[in-house]
Amino acid sequence: MTVSTPAPAPATVDLGDPHTFADHDLDGFWRTLRDTAPVYWNPPVGGRRGFWVVSRYDDIMATYRDNVNFTSERGNVLVTLLGGGDAGAGRMLAVTDGHRHHALRKILQRVLSPRVLNEVAQTVRVNTRQLIREAVESGGCDFAERIASRIPMTTISNLLGVPEQDRDFLLSLTKTALSADDEDVDEVDSEMARNEILMYFMDLVEERRESPGDDVISMLIGSAIDGVPLSDEDVVLNCYSLIIGGDETSRLTMIDCVHTLADRPGQWRRLKRGEVDVETAVDEVLRWASPTMHFGRSVVHESEMHGVRLRPGEIVTLWHASGNRDERVFARPGEFDLGRTPNKHLAFGYGPHFCVGSYLAKVEISELLLALRDFTTGFEQTDEALRIRSNFLTGFSTLPVRFRPDHRGLQEADR
Ligand code: HEM
Question: Which domain holds residue 37?
Answer without folding.
Answer: 10-414
